[in-house]
Amino acid sequence: MSEFWLCFNCCIAEQPQPGP
């Protein structure tokens, strides 16, 4: 579960929406 949140937060921090 942590992996999901980590990637999610990372993606959002870089761009306004999640990448592929």
Question: How would you characterize this protein structure?
Answer:
The protein is mainly alpha-helical and 20 residues long. Helix content is 65%, strand content 0%. It is built from one helix and no strands. The chain has one helix spanning 2-14. The protein starts with a helix and ends in a 6-residue tail after the last helix. The model has no long low-confidence stretch (mean pLDDT 63).
Features:
20 residues, single chain, mainly alpha, 1 helix, CDC42 small effector 2, 65% helix, elongated
Q: Secondary-structure element sequence? A: H
As a percent range, the share of strand residues is under 5%
Main sheet overview: none
Mean pLDDT equals 63
Indicate the radius of gyration in whole angstroms: 8 Å
Shape: elongated
β-strand number: 0
List strands and helices in order, with pairings.
Elements: H1 2-14
Protein name: CDC42 small effector 2
Summarize the model shown.
65% of the residues lie in helices and 0% in strands. This is CDC42 small effector 2.
